[in-house]
Amino acid sequence: MKKISINFIYFALISMITGCATTNTAPVASAINPVTNTYINQYPTRDLVDYVLNCVAKHGGLTYISQYACGCKIDKVAEKLSFKEFEAATTFSYLRKTPGENGSAFRDPKQSKSLRKRLQEAELYAEKMCFVK
Hints:
Elements lengths: L1 H20 L9 E3 L4 E3 L4 H14 L5 H17 L2 H13 L4 H8 L2 H21 L3
Antiparallel strand pairs: 1-2
């Protein structure tokens, strides 16, 4: 009996590991589920956590309210921007502060200005919807 339990646990563990290893990890653009007409969030977990932690740090530290509001905020931003757009916009935003000629590649292109503006609008919308102050 004990041997069967151990074999079952071993089999279950191998199945779980294999299942996790074979799942598609490539991010997919944000989409609307046509059946339920609801939003499907396709941002990678790592980026969601990074955004929430940065947001919590900006809004007074880790409390239930700031954690909930910041989680809500990234969900609202994700409604407005696909992950590809969000990633490009945050990259442009971070690197536009690079001084001199090196930073001009991130400050000057129309795509940079457009994406930074859309990110700013999405974040303002998110703050309004989630009551983040």
